[in-house]
């Protein structure tokens, strides 16, 4: 009899740390492999997939809200971020992950890239 892998499907609240900053977010991983993320400054959508019994990867595009002027450390106005994270489920209600965030300007050019670390807990 095979054991099914644990899954991140469901809603999570977490933080992402990058460039000395910490941002809060909420993400919902759907059973169909899609995801939706919401922060105070942005909303995004993407996909996730199980990579092993306790690991998964997720990818998303996060668009800054129209009322937010986000300036990158390189001095350019940011329009959206593409984020790739490799994550590990830890216990029944937590995950941690590391990855890259690539910031794009209003003309779609890459204006900045940074490492990101995240941790989240399942929302009951």
UniProtKB/TrEMBL annotation:
Superkingdom of this protein's organism: Bacteria
Name the record gives this protein: Dehydrogenase
């Amino acid at each position: 009899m095979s054991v099914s892998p644990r899954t991140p499907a469901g809603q999570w609240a977490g933080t992402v740390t990058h460039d000395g900053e910490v941002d809060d977010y909420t993400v919902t991983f759907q059973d169909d492999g899609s995801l939706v993320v919401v922060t105070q400054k942005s909303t995004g959508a993407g996909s996730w997939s199980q990579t092993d019994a306790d690991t998964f990867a997720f990818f998303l595009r996060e668009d800054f809200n129209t009322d937010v002027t986000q300036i990158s450390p390189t001095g350019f106005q940011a329009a959206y971020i593409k984020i790739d994270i490799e994550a590990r489920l830890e216990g029944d209600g937590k995950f941690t992950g590391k990855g890259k965030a690539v910031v794009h300007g209003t003309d779609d050019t890459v204006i900045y890239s940074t490492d990101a670390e995240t941790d989240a807990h399942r929302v009951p």
